[in-house]
């Protein structure tokens, strides 16, 4: 049986090839230790046979929730293609080397922004954020910007992956993959 994560990578590539703006934008749902849910959008920065990668501030709400409850759900939606991709599973931090490599590939402005922003923390005003950005720019003037210790990547290792394609009369196609205990996948077709 085909690996659903290979198909997921193909669907993401097809969305990019179709010219969809921000094809990697995904809704990421996490839960606190007591189960309180929250959802926000992140950018998927890779899908392979292991899982789905994204990057963020470890001290953000999502980072704190993933520390307390390392399970998440992620959904990508491409309206022009009438396709949706859903994944649910466990989440772990990526190795530092992988986070370092991705951080180095970002624009300098995004690198400095990671130093300036303590994502989700309360600000006294926009001026405080602008000042923090200026301070970071001065601190790293003329040199490479290192990855802050509070920023890095995560890997969502799906237990389930669902592919949804829109069809007439709301009789959509839904193929649901469930990871088997031995590591393979079982495929099921779901009623729309």
Description:
- The protein is of the alpha+beta class.
- The chain is 29% helix and 34% strand.
- The protein contains 5 helices and 8 strands.
- Strands 1, 2, 3, 4, 5, 6, 7 and 8 form an 8-stranded antiparallel sheet that branches.
- It is elongated and about 55 Å long.
- The protein starts with a helix and ends with a strand.
Question: How do the helices and strands line up, and which of them pair or pack?
Answer:
Elements: H1 4-17, E1 25-31, E2 37-43, E3 52-57, H2 61-68, E4 71-78, E5 83-93, H3 96-105, H4 108-116, H5 126-139, E6 151-165, E7 173-179, E8 185-189
Antiparallel strand pairs: 1-2, 1-4, 3-6, 4-5, 5-6, 6-7, 7-8
Feature tags:
192 residues, Pnp Oxidase, Chain A, eight-stranded antiparallel sheet, 29% helix, 34% strand
Quick overview:
This protein has one domain: Electron Transport, Fmn-binding Protein, Chain A (Pnp Oxidase, Chain A, Roll), CATH 2.30.110.
The value of Rg in angstroms is: 19 Å
Annotation, overall tally of beta strands: 8
What percent of residues adopt helix (DSSP H or I)? 25-40%
What is the number of independent domains?
A: 1
* CATH topology assignment: Pnp Oxidase, Chain A
- List SSEs in N-to-C order: HEEEHEEHHHEEE
Structural class: alpha+beta
Whole-number mean pLDDT:
95
Strand fraction = 25-35%
CATH superfamily: Electron Transport, Fmn-binding Protein, Chain A
Distance between the termini: 22 Å
CATH architecture: Roll
Q: How many separate helices?
A: 5
What would the principal axes of the Cα set say about the shape?
A: elongated
User: Regarding CATH, which class?
Assistant: Mainly Beta
Largest sheet: number of strands, sense, barrel closure:
8 strands, antiparallel
Uncertain stretches: none
């Amino acid at each position: 049986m085909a690996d659903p994560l290979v198909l997921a990578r193909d669907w993401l590539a097809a969305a990019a090839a179709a010219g969809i703006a921000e094809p990697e934008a995904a809704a990421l749902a996490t839960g606190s230790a007591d189960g309180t849910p929250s959802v926000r959008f992140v950018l998927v920065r890779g899908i392979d046979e292991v899982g789905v990668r994204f990057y963020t501030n470890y001290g953000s709400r999502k980072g704190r929730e993933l520390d307390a409850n390392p399970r998440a759900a992620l959904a990508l939606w491409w309206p022009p293609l009438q396709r949706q991709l859903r994944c649910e599973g466990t989440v772990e931090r990526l190795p530092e080397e992988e986070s370092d490599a991705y951080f180095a590939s970002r624009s300098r402005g995004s690198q400095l922004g990671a130093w300036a922003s303590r994502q989700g923390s309360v600000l006294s005003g926009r001026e405080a954020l602008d000042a923090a950005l200026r301070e970071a720019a001065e601190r790293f003037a003329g040199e490479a910007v290192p990855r802050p210790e509070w920023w890095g990547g995560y890997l969502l290792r799906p237990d389930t992956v669902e592919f949804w394609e829109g069809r007439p009369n709301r009789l959509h196609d839904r193929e649901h993959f469930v990871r088997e205990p031995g590591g393979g996948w079982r495929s099921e077709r779901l009623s729309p």
